[in-house]
């Protein structure tokens, strides 16, 4: 990937997807990748992972979840929280926001719920993988996840998924990951630009990644 630019080509910015999904097991580096992507783009994006909802739980319940313990509170349902997260994503998209979603779609109903939420919006899907031993090491190092959860999720989180890009974070630097993503995004955007004249007349026509003239 040596000469691949760490950016989106300026004339393709207006073809960026409305939503980028970053799906993978806990501790695989999804949030770090989303934040780096956000910082690398000159246009507004919102990073809205499932943790934004989970961290709104009552503190005692969040502590229980992090420890892998059952939450007993009346009304609690993990599936309900996932559905709520996806409904919020839909609301942000309908409001005109570009949304980057880091999550782990662990069940068939979660995948169906996400697909329904982004229906009608262009979505670029990234699958994040990582070797199990490295997941275990990162999980122990961060200390805020139930022991063994990353390994368990790695077996199921990619089932039934179709991706535009797979990124293995085992021993890949964040800089290289970004190059992989931007390379794939440039190709994805270029393919859609061929069927659209929006990039000839849009806000970013003739601009490079920081908004200045590309000439």
Automatic annotation (TrEMBL):
Keywords: Transferase. Its EC number is 2.7.1.-. The keyword Transferase applies. It is an enzyme of class 2 (transferase). The keyword Transcription does not apply. SUPFAM superfamilies: P-loop containing nucleoside triphosphate hydrolases (SSF52540). This is Chloramphenicol 3-O phosphotransferase. It holds the Pfam family CPT. InterPro entries: P-loop_NTPase. GO terms for molecular function: transferase activity. It comes from the Bacteria.
């Amino acid at each position: 990937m040596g000469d691949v630019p760490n950016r989106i080509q300026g004339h393709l910015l207006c073809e960026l997807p409305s939503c980028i999904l970053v799906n993978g097991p806990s501790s695989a580096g999804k949030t770090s990748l989303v934040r780096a992507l956000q910082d690398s783009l000159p246009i507004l994006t919102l990073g809205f992972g499932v943790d934004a909802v989970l961290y709104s739980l009552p503190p005692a319940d969040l502590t229980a979840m992090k420890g892998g313990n059952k939450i007993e509170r009346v009304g609690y349902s993990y599936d309900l929280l996932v559905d709520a997260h996806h409904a919020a994503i839909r609301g942000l998209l309908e409001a005109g926001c570009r949304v980057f979603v880091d999550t782990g779609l662990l069940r068939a109903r979660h995948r169906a719920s996400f697909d329904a939420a982004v229906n009608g919006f262009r979505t670029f899907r990234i699958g994040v993988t990582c070797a199990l031993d490295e997941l275990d090491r990162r999980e122990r190092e961060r200390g805020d996840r139930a022991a063994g959860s990353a390994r368990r999720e790695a077996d199921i989180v990619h089932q039934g998924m179709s991706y535009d890009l797979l990124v293995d974070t085992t021993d890949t630097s964040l800089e290289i990951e970004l190059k992989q993503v931007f390379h794939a995004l440039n190709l994805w955007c270029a393919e859609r630009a061929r069927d659209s004249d929006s990039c000839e007349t849009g806000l970013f026509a003739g601009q490079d990644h920081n908004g200045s003239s590309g000439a």
